[in-house]
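As a warm-up, study this chain.
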Amino acid sequence: MNNPTSYRYYAKTRTDAWDQPTIDNVWRLQMTERDGDLFPTREETWWPIMGQWVQTDNALIRYFYLGSPDFDDISEADAFEFIRDQLQRELWLEDQLSTMANGTFGTSLIRTPERDPREDDFAYVQFAKEEGAFFVEFSSNKFLKRKLTDAQVEAILAAGWNEPEKGVSPNYWREYRADDSNFTIASDVLGVMRKAFISEQPDVMQRRWFGLASNEGGYAAFYRADFDGCFLRSSEVWNELENVWKDTETISKWWVFGDTNIDEFDLAEAQARLPKAAIAG
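Now compare it with the structure written out below.
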């Protein structure tokens, strides 16, 4: 895998109701070596609703050179701990909805990794809460220069959202009851996200195979991981002494941060390198 070898991590923090520092979100700089020094070449922020890193527009690179009170340096471990708490996106969104008070609304841009970070024309999902009930909208083509595709519109409508309606909403809309749980709403929204806006096939569970390259050549360890589209469900390492798979965080970290020592195999190569018990287990 040709993953970047060096990242630096940053966060925007705030003080919570108990006067404790808490992270709002994390960023990373991809560092490239030139003439013995490391220079930032790309910046990204973690986008929880997408479950992906997305490129941002040089705010962090400016901080690197000029300094800024908006960012704090953090360790890779702290960045990963923050992200790991959000990898189950339904639970993350459920938590976000639970903090919304009556009479408030929130908007999340649907930023995908291939989009230029300088663009200002992203689709969005919007939440409004009134008398304990949520009103949820996905943006319609009325407000977008880059129009939704027919397949995206079909996915939104198939999930229970209504066509834009004069006097109700110019967007695709859905009105929930006060007794609908936040988890139900979050699951519905993430269902649309997976079908309409995330390029992978999230409803298809994939098993993927990996090896940790050793200095002597060959591989020092083998891993397997189950993915739900772009969401990592589980990862395990093969224990040769006990001939069993055991839980590990190695692939979770590779998925988030990158590691040039981790190589991915297809199934045929995994079958050639691993014992039959590992493939069948």
